[in-house]
Amino acid sequence: MPKKTIDIQPNLTHLAILNEHGEVDESLAPKLDGDTLVTMFRHMLATRRLDERMINMQRQGRIGTYGPSRGQEASQVGTAMALRPDDWTAQAFREMGMTLTRGWLMDLTLYFWGGYEEGNAVAEGHNDLPIAVPVASQNLHGVGIAWAMKIKKKDSVCITYVGDGGTSEGDFHEAMNFAGVYELPLIFIVQNNQFAISHPRRKQTKSRTLAQKALAYGFDGVQVDGNDVLAVYSATRDAVEKARKGGGPTLIECVTYRLSMHTTADDPTRYREDEEVKEWEKRDPLIRFAKYLRNKGVLDDASIEGIENDIKEEIAAAITRYENYEGLDPLDSFKYILADLPADLRAQQEEFITALRNEGQMSH
Amino acid sequence: MPKKTIDIQPNLTHLAILNEHGEVDESLAPKLDGDTLVTMFRHMLATRRLDERMINMQRQGRIGTYGPSRGQEASQVGTAMALRPDDWTAQAFREMGMTLTRGWLMDLTLYFWGGYEEGNAVAEGHNDLPIAVPVASQNLHGVGIAWAMKIKKKDSVCITYVGDGGTSEGDFHEAMNFAGVYELPLIFIVQNNQFAISHPRRKQTKSRTLAQKALAYGFDGVQVDGNDVLAVYSATRDAVEKARKGGGPTLIECVTYRLSMHTTADDPTRYREDEEVKEWEKRDPLIRFAKYLRNKGVLDDASIEGIENDIKEEIAAAITRYENYEGLDPLDSFKYILADLPADLRAQQEEFITALRNEGQMSH
Amino acid sequence: MASVNMVKALNLALTELMREDENVTLLGEDIGLDGGVFRVTEGLLEEFGGDRVIDTPVAEAGIIGAAIGMSIYGLRPVCEMQFSGFAYQAFHQIEGHLSRYRARSRGRFSVPMVVRMPYGGGIRAIEHHSESREAIYAHTPGLQVVVPSTPRNARSLLRASMLSPDPVIFYEPKALYRAFREEVPDEPEVHPLGKAQVVREGSDITLIGYGAMVRVLQEAAEDLHDQDGVNAEVIDLISLAPMDTETLVNSVAKSGRAIVVHEGPRRCGIGAEVAARLAESALDHLEAPVRRITGFDVQFPYFARERAYMPNSDRVVHAARELLEY
Amino acid sequence: MASVNMVKALNLALTELMREDENVTLLGEDIGLDGGVFRVTEGLLEEFGGDRVIDTPVAEAGIIGAAIGMSIYGLRPVCEMQFSGFAYQAFHQIEGHLSRYRARSRGRFSVPMVVRMPYGGGIRAIEHHSESREAIYAHTPGLQVVVPSTPRNARSLLRASMLSPDPVIFYEPKALYRAFREEVPDEPEVHPLGKAQVVREGSDITLIGYGAMVRVLQEAAEDLHDQDGVNAEVIDLISLAPMDTETLVNSVAKSGRAIVVHEGPRRCGIGAEVAARLAESALDHLEAPVRRITGFDVQFPYFARERAYMPNSDRVVHAARELLEY
Ligand SMILES: Cc1ncc(C[n+]2csc(CCOP(=O)(O)OP(=O)(O)O)c2C)c(N)n1
Ligand SMILES: Cc1ncc(C[n+]2csc(CCOP(=O)(O)OP(=O)(O)O)c2C)c(N)n1
Ligand SMILES: [Mg+2]
Ligand SMILES: [Mg+2]
Fold it and tell me: Does residue D192 have a pLDDT over 90?
């Protein structure tokens, strides 16, 4: 009949490999060949450049409101690089870097923020769910996918993304709990970019880390330097390997920072200090990774310029296709609502066609 | 750039004071006078006897489906005894022992399970929310009450109850998180009675204890022997005192057992072994507490018989009032929907009155 | 041929398709070991095992959200919400995702999944266990909503729902679960989604309902016939979304009078939609106002007051007489 | 007198009551430091402090559920759902508790609380940011549902809602937030809950709508007048629950023709309720079918397709001509 402390044997680790000066802890660094490292860098840079261009396009009125990724390239690319094509992802809405790494055309980014459903028309063969706007809701879809994989006895895994803000939602909890109970091959990537719009991390939850939330569900949590692509990759790869072998879920908190605004409609000066942003700019994931790759001799000025040019062309081509797109048919609303259009919807479609004709909104 | 274990400094304790043989750990036992101990016992016994009678009444068709408390008397009474009248509770649906301790008439129990809203018409002056059927939803109302107390600078606290099963719901998570962030004077009592209907505790969550879920929200968790009323009382009192002083929330997991069926509509033999029930019957909270009080000289055969008789009379009187109740007016549905009945609802009420008259369902 | 009640009929439909398609997977609270609180899934855990009949924690958003992911991966989940009154915990998953994946992804992903929910009054249950809120789902684009009214159509409708390429909210009138038995054929049948059924022909007045209210209408029609010599046509809507306007309009074209009946609240209920379709497409046939006999716009009472509250055949008969004299 | 837009008018109503009643407490995501994503709560944190203007984590059920508890303890919370499309996360708290505490406790507890939700299309937003689902709340007994259409009635209606002893869903047409300005008096006004308003008198046809659609109707009425010499009456419903049947019936008694317009889906929408009330209480006056011009029963499209999708005055004018020729 004692009063005793309960030992829950937490397995909670923190991981950092590549520091702000481009130096790595060789004992922890993943063994990646030069090509892979360059691919990683290319995806990160493409993310950065497309992001810059998207903000630009928004300012010019060529797309709608846009949600930037700046600062989070390591978290997005590093996690996606640890997956195979038969693995799946269930994203939120700020994972452009992940989608590019998974091979999505840049066109989809443009379409999505340009206001076309085409931006969520994930291409056949890409095992990634479209953008899910309601915060944390996608975590449960990740649960379902991982669960189906397990039932079907696949050795595939699923990654589901969520923001620091998203961990406050009930859906995150239910997803974490299901993942734990059923020991699913699911990895939760929390991109802790320090803000839910204006609401800072420390006011979102009283827990010291987000990683420790895994303890409530009986599985492991890892906190990584989310601006260190090697640590992000390494932690994800370990979690993926564990999951493939039936070891169940892992929560990985990527500690990073949203260097840009929440969306182009947001004014971050209302709620945070420039000083803080400047501090985090020093920890830019791209700069440190480039330094490391230069030091390592994997990249130099010329090769970087080559990559920059490739990316520029890729972006330009995507924008051209986006701006010359002629597929904008309002009737698509009826085309994709149900596999077979029932009679009452057919009547509504007729009504819609008549209205569009009257209004000159439809040519044919 | 290390890989290191994160220390989250958990404050997680386990507490047990009174064992199955009626022996106490004096160093931990709360200092309660004889009258208080007898009151505690009386509430526990009243809960047991009314519970038995309710099952009986259900079998005779005198009330509807009923959800028993048997085995959970210590968790319910012990927690409620730690409160003041200006404190509040936000219950689920299996807290009859708590309501009796808080001074509710037995009539309300009868009305509720007899199908009358009157069972949730909490008397003025009783600071307790009515029964909340949707699992875990009441936890958020507890948050709001505790929050209002804090804003109003009261030194009151709120207890909110939830079952083991309820901890799987999103509402539980959001409530825990708000309680942590805003450091609310709120105590979460998890009555872990080992089942959510047929679903056993171990299949509900992978975490070793339910108490450790508090760590995800940055506050303390306590696991107590929920069949030990002294431990339950003591842990609750400590949490209440901490909360009154601005120390924030606590999660208390009362490890207990639902000795009876989920409701009278349930057949527990479908999902659990009699052996297990027998094991838990040995840990009956009433038996051990009675033993202790007898040993201590606070109770004897005569005084127990006196209490039994008082309870019998109280139950009989309540049943008489319930069965002779003449307040059953179907129009109450319109009386309590909104403070002021708008025109379209007045028209519906007229329609209802006409129908009831036609059907002889209304005398006047 | 076997004579079964609705619980058994539903169980049969599940068993049949689970045998035919190994992707059919059931999820819900207490559906495995316990066989479901209404026993609809009784025996399925034993036959199909824990990977296909999954007992879940108490987490409705979890159930629906996870099943959405499973559907996308290729399974065909059938979820049970223990009572329709606890499906609101999952409403954001239903509104935000279940109904949308096809449109959102332009057909790349679809969610061929069924959500079964027992609904309605008449079983002397506590709060939240007797409500009807089918209109909320019918109002949500992308969902199909159906309600059986007999054991036989319960089976054929559940089969059709499970075979549908798109999500179906399968609203089960729990008052009918064990109310009566009906012969069902040996071979499974499929009731086409979207079709209403004339369950009694007549040309004097049209009585429209679904689920447990169909019996109320049939009783009213009998009374009208026996007592007033009136021939009422009774339409069982069966499908609330889509809704079979044609069958409604054809009937009212004959009868010129319509009453629509449901348990759920009146404001913006299914009755409103039926009345609106008639006011739009059958106005010239209408010889009397369209009457709604429904749950009132108040909370469904605790069960001591439920008999008074629920629509019954007396109310239908009274309204019919008023309309016939109009 | 000041000339303000709807954002400012709402801000004014909040400020006024917060000054008068220290129990008024605001909760929501980004409403404090950031002033709300639409700036409706701008400046309130500074004036009233963090105990009364509370920035919450992203947890809608948490916001509504906690506010219910606060109300019961004696505060008067006004919650902001950042967009109506994220209120479904809290729907179980709304349906299960916000609407029920008074009935459940036989008046011992009540929940005098307002839930503000920006709704509707026309702002080129991403998915879930343009929908209208007012009918779901109107279908839920125990809730009052109102929609302002101008800065002035936004202020008077929000004040009335905050003074109501029962919960109000305050649906804000975000397309109107900064669309135009209107003079508002120095002293606060109260728009009685439950009352519709005739915003343009006429006797040839009745056009019914609310929120952002009122301007569409006014434009249509102008066109009908200028081009066809037709005098349309325009009714701004304002209150969807309760609904002001009398004003509707009186108008149709004059005009014999009605069109109802809203952005939300048609099936079981507010238009269905309006049409049903007319089919019930104004049938003899109706000289033509009741027409609904509404969102279709499909997902609200992403914004490149929204102009085509949304109801507009051309559609109203066309329908009016058809009804007038009927
Ligand atoms: C359920 C829900 N509530 C509110 C919103 C509005 N919203 C969009 S993003 C956001 C903050 C999310 O923060 P976080 O999860 O940290 O992701 P981040 O934006 O930082 O990537 C909010 C509140 C939403 N999309 N979904
Ligand atoms: C949101 C919700 N889902 C489902 C139910 C049906 N239900 C009633 S009690 C119960 C199990 C609850 O288990 P627990 O929280 O452990 O409480 P206990 O019954 O053991 O007291 C369930 C699933 C409900 N009431 N509410
Ligand atoms: Mg964030
Ligand atoms: Mg339990």
Answer: yes
- What DSSP string runs through C233-285? EEEE--EEETT-HHHHHHHHHHHS-EEEEEEEESTTSHHHHHHHHHHHHSGGG
Q: pLDDT band at B9, cuts 50/70/90?
A: low
A258 is catalytic: yes
Phi-psi region of C36 (alpha: psi -120 to 50; beta: other; left: phi over 0): left
| D278 interaction partners in chain C (CB closer than 8 Å) | 279
Specify the ligand 2 atom closest to the Cα of B135.
26
**Contact with chain B for residue A207, Cβ under 8 A:** yes
**Partner residues linked to C54 by β-bridges:** C27
**Do both D176 and D240 map to the same domain?**
no
D-contacting residues in C 297-316 (Cβ below 8 Å) = 297-299
Q: CB distance A180–B28 less than 8 Å?
A: no
Show which of D130, D150, D184 is a domain's final residue: D184
pTM of the model: 0.98
State the amino acid at position D232 in one-letter form. A
Domain count along chain C: 2
| A to C CB pairs, distance under 8 Å | 141
CA distance A187 to A239: 7
Mean pLDDT of C68-84: 98
| Stretch (H or E) spanning B39 | helix B34-59
- CA trace torsion B18, B23, B29, B32 (10° rounding): 100
Return the percentage of chain B with pLDDT > 90, whole number. Answer: 95
pLDDT tens-digit profile of B118-167?
999 999 999 999 999 999 999 999 999 999 999 999 999 999 999 999 99
Cα separation, A235 vs A228, whole angstroms: 11
C229 CB within 8 Å of a chain A CB: no
- Are residue D164 and residue D276 in the same domain, yes or no? no
- Is the bond leading into D151 cis (omega within 30 degrees of zero)? no
- Give me the amino acid identity at C32: G
Q: Which CATH number characterizes residue D277's domain?
A: 3.40.50.920
Rounded to 10 deg, the angle between the A301-323 and A106-114 helix axes is: 50
The response to whether residue C82 sits with its C-beta less than 6 Å from ligand 2 reads: yes
CB C284 within 8 Å of CB B94: no
Mean pLDDT of C16-29: 98
Q: Is B210 exposed, middle or buried (0-12, 13-18, 19+ CB in 10 A)?
A: buried
Q: Tell me: do D81 and D104 sit in the same domain.
A: yes
ipTM above 0.95, yes or no: yes
In the numeric block, which tokens belong to residue B100?
Answer: 């009796």
**Residue A37 to residues A51, A150, A254, A296, B195, Cα–Cα distance (Å):** 21, 31, 20, 11, 51
Question: Same structural domain for residues D68 and D132?
Answer: yes
> Which residue range is the domain that position D217 belongs to?
197-324
Residue B1: is its pLDDT beyond 70?
Answer: no
D90-144 pLDDT, tens per residue? 999 999 999 999 999 999 999 999 999 999 999 999 999 999 999 999 999 999 9
Nearest 5°: phi and psi at D276? Answer: -65, -40
Q: What radius of gyration do chain C's Cα atoms show?
A: 19
Nearest to B345 among C35, C297, C312 (CB): C297
- Closest atom, ligand 1, to C-alpha of A72: 21
Q: Are residues D133 and D206 in the same domain?
A: no
C135 is a domain residue? yes
d(CA A59, CA A65): 9
The pocket around ligand 1, CB under 6 angstroms, is made up of A 94, 133-135, 163-166, 193, 195-197, 258, 262; D 29, 58, 82, 86, 89
Active site residue A66: no
Q: How far is A259 from chain D (nearest CA, A)?
A: 17
User: In the structure encoding, which two tokens stand for residue C320, read together?
Assistant: 């019919």
Structure tokens at C32: 């495995």
